[in-house]
Amino acid sequence: MEGGSGSSSPCPLDKGFSDQIAVLLSPPSPESIKDYYDELMKTRKCNDLKINFSNSSGKAVYAIKEFEEGELVLKDQILVAAQHSSNKVDCLVCSYCFRFIGSIELQIGRKLYLQELGLSANKECKESLSRFPEKACTRVLDDIKKHSVSNGSHGVGSSTYTNSKDNSIPTEVLHSLINGNMSLPYTNLFALPSIFDCPGGCKEEHYCSKLCADLDWESFHSLLCTGRNTEPSKRDAILQFIEHSNGTNDIFIVAAKVISYTILKFRKLKRLRLKENEKRAKLDETDFPLLLEAWKPVSMGFKKRWWDCIALPDDVDSSDEASFRMQIRDLAFTSLQLLKEAIFEDECTPLFSLEIYGHIIGMFELNNLDLVVASPVEDYFIHIDDLPSPEKEEAEKLTRPLLESLGDEYSVCCQGTGFYPLQSCMNHSCCPNAKAFKGDEDKDGQAIIIAAQSIVKGEEITISYIDEDLPYDERQALLADYGFRCMCQRCLEEMPGM
């Protein structure tokens, strides 16, 4: 099996399991697509939409009722997603649903403390923050809590970390905010869910509830956990994989979650069959359908090899394109080898082929909707600013120094990459009738699609994959990275020569 761009694959599994890989990557039949999405729409109670499939245009979403401008069209749950590694320093969120957790005080104190650490820490600590942002954050905050206990219940005392900015906050105040020993005015109006730890005992993942912790464990995290119950050699391998991902491209972490999801679902399906006394020990022709069934939700996403579909950067000359794409392929192979060392499962060997890995990453390149959750810290400071006098002046005695120290970064939202199974079926238009939108009530990582204009019954629902305000040529150039030329009504009208 070729590795793309005219070069044979460096991964021996691509050749050894080529037949099974071809089946996994073959487009689902129209019947299976219809059955899958009919069941998904029924489960999620999306009674106002339907998904149609045609060989010419693929999947498309249609309205089966009228929508008024601004009306909710779709609330789509994530199939798999991950917060960007660099964003973990700014936002503490649930690792499953991506709600902000803890308290406003913790969010502010944690962010400022880590901000100061990044400014004043030595090179080794900066590199640690870059490679293991969440692990470094957790370690530092654990140190604060231990230090606070040894210095009294109020969390105030000297610190080895000093503050170097003129408008910065005393370290003991940050300790108190983080430890819950200091309350800011009106934060009771912005209560956040309590923090639940990882069931496996790792310090990298946190949750808003036991339900989210258990769901993440069962669906993804149990194979990727670096907690106390993980075999040391596997833990080291997982950490090496994470380090490589954080240092290169954290899209690899999302791809790892897809493979983990498929393996865990395969195990579940096999357990169900074992209960029926149909015992089979190895992956063979009779077990392969179980892997196909576990893979089905992923099979529905449009895919190409990552190194074939990734946009050529502006600083790479077209004469160097082939070399660039081979470098991207080799980067993916390095990541895959590290992941294979960490979570390889013999019965699911085809999942660890470069061909499958490249297509998983390519699926996110072509289908992902940015994961965005607005920060409650921004809402909090807006509330303070809107208070009447003298309440505002009194509150700002405490909040103004914090806001000034945060600067422009006070409103950073949770950011990540996600795959949304229903939203990914929506086709592009440069004059879309729907758009992604998050309201004040949308507190988690679900994709929210609303009507950008009136939509009539039977009309296809479209969104824009790009900035539709760009000129025709720029829009077409960006859409070429998605593998198609847009022929929407607007593009037909603006096409040169028309």
TrEMBL record:
Q: Quote any Pfam family the record assigns.
A: SET
Return the PROSITE patterns for the record: SET
* The organism's place on the tree of life at top rank: Eukaryota
Q: Which GO terms describe its molecular function?
A: methyltransferase activity
Query: Record's InterPro entries?
Result: ATXR2-like, SET_dom, SET_dom_sf
Q: Which residues form the SET domain?
A: 47-466
The record's section on PANTHER family has: HISTONE-LYSINE N-METHYLTRANSFERASE ATXR2, SET DOMAIN-CONTAINING PROTEIN
Quote the protein name from its UniProt record: SET domain-containing protein
Query: From what organism does this protein derive?
Result: Ensete ventricosum (Abyssinian banana)
What taxonomic ancestry is recorded? Eukaryota, Viridiplantae, Streptophyta, Embryophyta, Tracheophyta
